[in-house]
Write a structure and sequence with these properties.
With 161 residues, the protein is α+β, with helices and mostly antiparallel strands. It is built from five helices and six strands. The strands form two sheets. The protein has a four-stranded antiparallel beta sheet. The chain has a two-stranded antiparallel ribbon with strand order 5-6. The protein starts with a helix and ends in a 14-residue tail after the last strand.
Length: 161
């Protein structure tokens, strides 16, 4: 992968001037390369990783990882079904994976009932969806390579015999 992309992937706030200094390049050249990556759809966006738990934002939200077993369609495989699924507002992420299930979805809802309704009323009734397995996220420790919480001191009492 291009060094410019590696730098931006680690910290999207790095300016073209800083990147140019790091790589011994001209700032204009860096700006042009970044613009080309954006035009080609290689750079799709820039984001900050936010610890929503620290902001108290997760009190009104439930996140679930849902595995879906899908019947592949002739000549298109899983793509059409995945497209139908990822268009739902509740679906934040959709991956094709190996193993017992075919798609892994990250789904958000205001509560467990909202996620359950999504599975029961939208996902499971789809003709190509054969089975689902839902896992509710309890706590995030690390996201996109960034540790979200510092390790807490072990408060258990030591026992000696």
């Amino acid at each position: 992968m291009d060094e410019i992309l590696e730098i931006l992937e680690k910290d999207a706030r790095t300016t073209p001037g800083e990147i140019a200094d790091m790589l011994g390049m001209d700032e204009k050249e860096v700006k042009e390369k970044i613009a080309k990556y954006e035009e080609k759809g290689i750079i799709l966006g820039y984001k900050a990783v936010i610890n929503k738990e620290a902001l108290g934002m997760m009190k009104d939200k439930v996140v679930a990882l849902i595995e879906a077993k899908v019947l592949p369609e002739k000549n298109v495989g899983f793509d059409n079904t995945a497209r139908k699924i990822y268009k739902f507002d509740e679906v934040k992420t959709c991956y094709l994976v190996s193993g017992d299930y075919d798609l892994l979805l990250v789904v958000e809802g205001k509560d467990i009932h909202t996620v359950a309704s999504f599975v029961a009323e939208k996902l499971s009734p789809m003709e190509s969806v054969q089975a689902t397995r839902t896992h509710f996220m309890l706590k995030k420790y690390k996201e996109d390579g960034i540790v979200l919480a510092s390790p807490e001191e072990d408060k258990r009492m030591a026992i000696s015999i």
